């Protein structure tokens, strides 16, 4: 791989979403990795600079290390399409759909892929009604947010009002989801189309089962098991399921799907798919890649080499 062929590279980081802090950590790691490999890479924060500067300053491609809205939802991807600059990760439509958890679940369900039961809610009263329908525990979360921001695990009717208010504070679209008790796993995918491949599954064991924002990024109390230690055949089945979910949304480049395995039936349920996964010191795609012998710096190069446009 001749890194000079990449030209001048912008690592997009920061942005204006609630995940700005995590994005800055991801972007800093990616930037250092690319520079260590000799790539002419530079930090670029869309919250502080005009995206038009990318074209004016001669950037040849972008590594998207933005998370959440205005970075992972098709908006930046659309701008880069107009600018004619290749970028990492899925294209405009796949990014927009994957960011919307409701739309993602509707498409997966139409394709026969398993995902927990859900209700879209528009008020605290509808949240209470969803609790009666879905049962306890129930997850209440913003439809278009990540990193478990605004998420509540509800176990009593009395918690519903506060859970709705918290989620609606992040996004006017709120959903309630059936809680699947069992193993929590995640599976990254690299590549495009038939060449896409699932990386090793990671089993997540968080303190008291609470894989929240703090336990994701800022503590060392969460355990990540690679190899995942699942019963024979389950890991391969999850990898097959995640590849189907990835291809159904027409993802390219990379993504990471989160899955819950029902403890009683051992049936896996797709929760969501992240089209610009974290690349921090606690992040899961680098961890899974490392289990295959792919170092962080080489992973960043591989992703950069996959940069593309929808209409090119």
Structure, explained:
The protein has 312 residues and is of the alpha+beta class. The chain contains 11 helices and 13 strands. It has helices at residues 20-36, 52-56, 75-83, 92-99, 101-110, 124-134, 160-168, 213-217, 234-248, 284-291, 296-305, and strands spanning 8-12, 40-44, 61-64, 118-121, 138-142, 152-154, 174-178, 182-190, 197-198, 202-205, 223-225, 254-262, 268-274. The strands form 3 sheets. Strands 8, 9, 10, 11, 12 and 13 form a 6-stranded antiparallel β-sheet that branches. The protein has a 4-stranded antiparallel β-sheet with strand order 4-7-5-6. A 3-stranded parallel β-sheet has the order 2-1-3, covered by helices on one side. Strand 12 (254-262) and strand 13 form a beta hairpin. Helix 1 (20-36) crosses helix 11 and helix 6 crosses helix 7 (160-168). It is globular. The protein starts with 7 loop residues before the first strand and ends in a 7-residue tail after the last helix. The model has no long low-confidence stretch (mean pLDDT 94).
Oligomer category: single chain
N-to-C SSE series?
EHEHEHHHEHEEHEEEEHEHEEHH
Main sheet: strands, sense, barrel? 6 strands, antiparallel
Amino-to-carboxy terminus distance: 21 Å
How does the overall form come out from the CA principal axes?
Answer: globular
Q: Compute the number of strand runs.
A: 13
Spans of 5+ residues with little confidence (pLDDT < 50)?
Answer: none
Work out the strand percent.
Answer: 15-25%
SSE class: alpha+beta
Number of helices: 11
Q: What Rg, in angstroms, do the CA atoms define?
A: 19 Å
- The helix fraction, in percent, is 25-40%
Quote the average pLDDT: 94
């Amino acid at each position: 791989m001749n890194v000079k062929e990449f030209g001048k590279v912008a690592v997009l980081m920061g942005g204006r979403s609630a995940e700005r802090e995590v994005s800055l950590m991801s972007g800093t790691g990616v930037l250092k990795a690319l520079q260590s490999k000799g790539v002419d890479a530079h930090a670029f924060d869309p919250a502080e600079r005009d995206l038009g500067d990318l074209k004016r300053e001669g950037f040849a491609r972008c590594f998207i290390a933005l998370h959440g809205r205005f970075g992972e939802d098709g908006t930046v991807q659309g701008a880069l399409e107009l600018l004619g600059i290749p970028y990492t990760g899925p294209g405009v439509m796949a990014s927009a759909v994957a960011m919307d958890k409701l739309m993602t679940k509707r498409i997966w369900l139409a394709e026969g892929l398993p995902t927990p039961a859900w209700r879209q809610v528009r008020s605290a009263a509808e949240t209470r009604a969803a609790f009666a329908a879905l049962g306890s525990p129930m997850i209440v979360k913003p439809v278009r947010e990540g990193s478990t921001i605004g998420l509540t695990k509800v176990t009593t009717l009395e918690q519903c009002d506060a859970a709705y208010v918290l989620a609606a504070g992040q996004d006017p679209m709120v959903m309630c989801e059936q809680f699947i008790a069992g193993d929590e796993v995640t599976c990254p995918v690299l590549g495009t189309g038939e060449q896409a491949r699932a990386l090793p599954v990671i089993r997540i064991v968080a303190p008291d089962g609470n894989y929240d924002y703090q336990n994701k990024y800022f503590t060392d109390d969460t355990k990540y098991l690679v190899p995942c230690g699942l019963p024979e055949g389950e890991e391969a089945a999850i990898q097959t399921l995640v590849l189907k979910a990835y291809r159904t949304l027409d993802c390219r480049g990379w993504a990471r799907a989160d899955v819950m395995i029902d403890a009683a039936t051992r049936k896996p349920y797709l929760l969501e798919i992240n089209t610009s996964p974290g690349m921090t010191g606690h992040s899961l795609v680098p961890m899974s890649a490392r289990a295959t012998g792919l170092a962080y710096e080489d992973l960043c190069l591989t992703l950069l080499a996959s940069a593309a446009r929808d209409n090119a």
